[in-house]
C-alpha cells in the first residue's frame, strides 16, 4: 500500500432515509468514520475491501436505479478506494485522510 495507516476501524453500516439523496450514503459513511463535515476529506486516503465498496454502491443504487453510471461516477470520485490486503469488514484511514479546516475568524 505504501502509505502510513493511522487508524484501522470496522466498516460502518450506513443507510439512507427516504428523503436523502444517493450520494449522502458516502457523507454518512465518512461521518461514521470520524469526519466532522467541516475538515477537508481526502477519500483517496480511505481504503477498504471490495465488499464494503460494493455495499456502499448498492445502497446508493437502490435509491437511484435508473442511472448506474451516475452512481458509479459518484463512487469513483468520492468513494473510498479498495485494497486486497485489508481484512474483511475493515477500513484503513491513511495519514492525511482529514486535513483540519482553517479556523473561522
Break the fold down into its secondary structure elements and pairings.
Layout: E1 5-10, H1 24-33, E2 40-41, E3 46-48, H2 50-63, H3 68-78, E4 81-82, E5 90-94, E6 98-99
Helix pairs in contact: 2-3
Helix content: 25-40%
Compute the number of helices. Answer: 3
Give the topology string: H per helix, E per strand.
Answer: EHEEHHEEE
Q: How many whole angstroms does the radius of gyration measure?
A: 14 Å
Average of pLDDT: 90
Question: Strands of the biggest beta sheet: in what spatial order?
Answer: 1-5-3-4
Q: What would you call the shape?
A: globular
- The span between the termini is 39 Å
Strand segment tally: 6
The low-pLDDT segments are none
> What number of structural domains do the residues give?
1
Q: What structural category arises from helix and sheet content?
A: alpha+beta
Amino acid at each position: 500500500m505504501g502509505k502510513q495507516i493511522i487508524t484501522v476501524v470496522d466498516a460502518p453500516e450506513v443507510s439512507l432515509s427516504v428523503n436523502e439523496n444517493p450520494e449522502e450514503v458516502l457523507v454518512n459513511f465518512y461521518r461514521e468514520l470520524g469526519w466532522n463535515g467541516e475538515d477537508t476529506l481526502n477519500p483517496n486516503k480511505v481504503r477498504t475491501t471490495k465488499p464494503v465498496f460494493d455495499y456502499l454502491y448498492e445502497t446508493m443504487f437502490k435509491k437511484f436505479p435508473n442511472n448506474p453510471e451516475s452512481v458509479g461516477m459518484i463512487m469513483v470520485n468520492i468513494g473510498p478506494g479498495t485494497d486486497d490486503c485489508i481484512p474483511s469488514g475493515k477500513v484503513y484511514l491513511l495519514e492525511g485522510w482529514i486535513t483540519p479546516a482553517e479556523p473561522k475568524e
